[in-house]
Specification:
The structure is a single chain. With 143 residues, the chain is an all-alpha fold. It has a single domain, classed as Helix Hairpins, CATH 1.10.287.1700. It is built from two helices and no strands. Helix 1 runs antiparallel to helix 2. The radius of gyration is 34 Å and the shape is rod-shaped.
Length: 143
Amino acid sequence: MNRVLSQRTRIVRVRRLQHDLAASAAVEAAGKVQQLESSRKRLADMRSELRAAPGVTSGCTLARIGELAMRLDVARQGLTPSLDSARAAAAQKERIRVSKRRDQESAEKLQHSAAAAAEALAERQMLRAPRQRARFMNDGGDQ
């Protein structure tokens, strides 16, 4: 029974490590999504702040503002595929993390049941031991 208990304990340790690695990967993927969303928001904020100065403005200045606005729009739109793939990757990593957590909890339950079975077996053996000693003493005293 000790072999089963030590095996289950080892499995719990492995499953805990697997969950920790999966959780770390999920957090990293969520951080990447957050970073891309933040970049997209900054680009949108920069675009909205582009305005010509009040008063008389030259056509060259307006052209530069328009060109910069267009480039900011293109950059923001270019983030969309990256953001979508990062969201999909983050969702997949979260599903993996949940699966690893479920595996870890199953292993912990098996370990607890093995520990309870080992404890029950030890108690039964301890209860049986005085009777066996008494029997041995009686057998030894008869000879």
